[in-house]
Structure formats: C-alpha cells, structure tokens
Amino acid sequence: MLMTTLAGLLASASFATACEITLRSSDTHPDGYPTVEGVKAMAEEVREKTDGRICIEVFPSSQLGEEKDTIEQTQFGVIDMVRASFGSFNDIVPVTQIMSLPYLFTSVEHSHAVLDGPIGEEIAAAFEERDLVALAWYDGGARSFYNSQRPIQSIADLEGMKFRVMQNDVFVDMMDALGANATPMPYGEVYSSIQTGVIDGAENNFPSYDSSGHAEVAKYFTLDEHLIVPELVAMSKTSWDKLTPEDQAILREAAQNSSTLQRELWAAQEQESLDKVTAAGAEVITEIDKTPFIEAMVPVYDKYVTTPENKDLVERIRATQ
User: Fold this and answer.
1) What's the pTM?
2) Is 79 helix (H, G, I), strand (E, B) or coil?
3) Helices (H), the chain
4) Do the Cβ atoms of 168 and 229 come closer than 8 Å?
5) What range does the domain containing 45 cover?
6) Backbone phi and psi for residue 37, each to the nearest 5 degrees, phi listed first
7) Which of 17, 42, 108, 242 is 20 to 30 Å from 273 at the Cα level?
C-alpha cells in the first residue's frame, strides 16, 4: 500500500515537473459531468500539442469556490480558467443578461447558430473588456415547466399555478406574464414543497428533473424550453497574455474542439434522463404551440431590453438561422 501511494506521488511530481505552464481551471459540477469532461478533453489536447509544456489542471465540485467567486478570481488572475453559466456573469458582462431572456432562443440548435457566428464574436469581445477571454461556448440545457397537477399545453393551463423559480427578477416577471405565481425558494426545498402542495411545480432541464427526484412528485413535464442559457469556458486575460501567440492558438483550437464534445455529452445525458423519467411514469408533453408563450413576453422584453443596442441584438438573434 505504501509503495503504491509513493508511486502515485512520484508520478504526480513527474507530471508537474514536465509542465512548464500549469493552468488551474474551476468547475462547480462533479467529475464526470459534461462540462468537466469537456475541459478535461481540452486539457488533453493542449498537453499533446505542446508536448507536455502546458498542462490544465481541472478542479471540479467547487473545489476552488462557487461560480461567482471563481469568476472574480479568474478576472484577477488568481486562477486561470473557469467554466460557468452566462447567468453568473450578468453583473459583470451586461450583454449576458440579454442571453438570459425567456424564449430568446427557439431551440438549442438556434443558440448554437447564434454563438458560433458573428454575434458570438461580439459577446466574446465584451468578455475581454472585463479581463476575461471567452474560449468556448458550452451547453447548459433548456429549462422547461413541470408540475404535479396537469399537463400544460397552453398558457391557460398555467393560470394560478405556483412554480418555484430562482431568485431572479426576470424569472418572476416571466411567470407573472404567463399568469402563474412565481415562488422563489432554495433548490433543495423543491421536492418537499411539491410533495406537500406548497407549490405545484418548478422548471429545469431533464438531467436536473431526473437527478433531483422531482419526477417522482411532479410527473407532468412540458417541453416548452423557455430558457436556454449558454455556458462558457473563460480564461483570465492576465494568464492569456503570458502565452505566446502560438500557444494561444493551440488553446483556442482545443477549446473549440472541446465544445463539440461537451455538446454531444450533454445531449446524451439529456436523452438518458428523458428515457429514465418516462420509464418511471413521467408524462412529457411535446405538442405545444410556443407562439402564445412568446407573445406573452412582450412586457418582459419592454422592461429589460431598453437600449437601442440591446433591441438590435435581440432582433439579430431572432433573425439568425
């Protein structure tokens, strides 16, 4: 046992010695999660293409802190990289607030088309103004409604129902516009609150609906995809500027390749969760006309999209094919 431990320590020391540059990357999700596996794949490609000169050490499970804390640390160069949701950047990179508006994206594929094109380049430039270099856009799933009472196929079905939402003004206003009642509460209280009738349901993606056990107490899942919030891998500009242009190109290419993998892993995880909850008796409603839901968001957009620049951005996002 002692020999095995010693061998492991020597191997780790040898690996660390071989790295001329070691970049620390943070993620709140556990090892094996699609975002973590995406960055690990990026790390492997970078290591191979630099002959081991540049190593990326991935710290999952919030080992370096929660998202907002690690974003700030990345800005100041305390850590080198972070994987986080656009929602966690709302107070730092204002354009990310627009990307958090309900029904902005018509599908996950639409969000890819937007982020992988000219608009994505504009958003990346906005990150750089905040001392962050956006390297790759990742998927974080589409949030939809689920509840314990009835299938939701129209806005009328939402009337008067109580849904848990995150403590976010946009979410609260969205529910109000749909005729439902928003009930902000900690995520950990959702299961018992649905079970006891304090709320009728909540909203989230399939993997969360599955892993949280919410499918056990709220069997009606309506695939309306009202919120598709992208995620990204961002690097400290301080750390980035220390690299040669050649090494920067290697990191950027590896990050882009990792995005393709991460999206595939996320899609697979969503399908696995969908299969699991339907096998357990959940009813997934897919036949839904989203148009009335989208039209109901006019007052929400009037409140949060106020500048000519943001109005133009929303129009261009909607026009992207």
Assistant:
1) 0.86
2) coil
3) 2-18, 34-49, 67-75, 95-98, 108-115, 118-128, 169-177, 190-196, 206-211, 237-241, 245-279, 291-295, 298-304, 308-319
4) no
5) 14-94+107-139+230-273
6) -65, -30
7) 42
Based on the fold, state whether residues 219 and 295 are members of the same structural domain. yes
Q: Radius of gyration (Cα) for the chain, nearest Å?
A: 21
Cβ–Cβ under 8 Å, residues 71 and 78: no
Closest to 231 (Cα-Cα) out of 201, 265, 203: 265
Burial class of residue 14, CB neighbours in 10 A (0-12, 13-18, 19+) = exposed
Q: Is residue 280 part of a domain?
A: yes
Kindly state whether residues 257 and 203 are assigned to the same domain: no
- The total domain count for the chain is 2
| First-residue to last-residue Cα distance in the chain | 58
Q: Within the chain, which residues score under 50 in pLDDT?
A: 1-16
Element (H, E) at 57: strand 54-59
Q: Which residue has the tokens 């100041």?
A: 76
- Residue after which a domain boundary falls, among 258, 273, 288: 273
pLDDT at residue number 11 = 42
- 124/149 same-domain check: no
Q: How far apart are CA 214 and CA 233, in angstroms?
A: 29
| Number of other residues whose CB lies within 10 A of the CB of residue 292 | 12
Could you tell me if 123 and 208 lie in one domain? no
Residues 274-306 have pLDDT tens digits of 999 999 999 999 999 999 999 999 999 999 999
Does residue 99 sit within a domain? no
pLDDT in tens, 143-195: 999 999 999 999 999 999 999 998 888 899 999 999 999 999 989 999 999 99
